[in-house]
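Lecture notes, part 5. Sequence design as translation. It can be helpful to think of inverse folding as translation between two languages: the language of shapes and the language of residues. The source text, in C-alpha cells, appears below.
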C-alpha cells in the first residue's frame, strides 16, 4: 500500500519521485527532469522557455551571414601580412564580426542565426584559404616545395577555423569559466 503523500512522475505513473518542476510544480522523475541553472524543470517548461529564446527574424538569418562573410573576407586578406600574429588577431576579428552583427540584428537570437553567421564567416575566409592552397599545390607539383610556401596556408587555415569558432561561440553566449 502506498503512502497518500507519495508522488509519482506525471509522465511515468509507475515511478515514485521526490522531484517537482520548479516552474509548474508537476512531479517529474530523473529521466524527465532537465537541469537548469535555477533547478530542475519538466521538458514542457523548458520547451516553452526556448520558444521565447528564438527572437530572430527571417531577414536576420539572411543578413547576418552576408555581413559576417564580408568582414571575414577582409580579415582573411589582412592576416596574410601578419604571419604568426594571426593566432592573436583571428579571435579579435571574430569578436568584431559578433559586435557588428549584434548592432545590425539588434541582439535578436536563434540557433539558426548563430549557425548561419558562423557559416558566413567561414565562407568569407574560404576563398583566401583556397587560393593559398592552390598556390601551394601548384608549387608542390612543379617541384619547388619549401616550408615557407606552407606557412601562408597554415596561417589562413588557422584564421578560418579561429574566426568561425569565435563568431559562433560569442553569438551563442558560451563562456568558459
Amino acid at each position: 500500500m502506498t503512502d497518500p503523500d507519495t508522488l509519482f512522475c506525471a509522465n511515468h505513473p509507475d515511478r515514485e519521485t521526490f522531484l517537482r518542476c520548479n516552474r509548474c510544480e508537476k512531479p517529474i522523475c530523473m529521466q524527465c527532469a532537465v537541469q537548469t541553472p535555477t533547478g530542475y524543470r519538466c521538458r514542457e517548461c523548458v520547451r516553452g522557455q526556448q520558444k521565447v529564446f528564438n527572437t530572430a527574424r527571417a531577414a536576420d538569418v539572411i543578413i547576418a551571414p552576408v555581413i559576417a562573410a564580408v568582414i571575414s573576407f577582409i580579415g582573411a586578406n589582412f592576416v596574410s601580412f601578419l604571419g604568426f600574429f594571426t593566432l592573436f588577431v583571428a579571435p579579435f576579428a571574430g569578436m568584431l564580426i559578433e559586435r557588428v552583427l549584434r548592432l545590425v540584428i539588434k541582439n535578436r537570437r536563434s540557433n539558426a542565426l548563430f549557425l548561419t553567421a558562423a557559416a558566413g564567416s567561414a565562407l568569407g575566409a574560404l576563398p583566401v584559404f583556397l587560393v593559398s592552397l592552390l598556390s601551394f599545390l601548384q608549387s608542390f607539383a612543379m617541384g619547388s616545395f619549401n616550408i615557407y610556401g606552407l606557412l601562408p596556408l597554415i596561417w589562413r587555415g588557422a584564421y578560418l577555423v579561429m574566426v568561425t569558432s569565435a563568431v559562433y561561440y560569442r553569438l551563442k553566449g558560451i563562456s568558459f569559466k
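The translated text above is only one of many valid answers, since several sequences can fold into similar shapes. Helices lie at 43-53, 58-79, 86-105, 111-141, 147-172.
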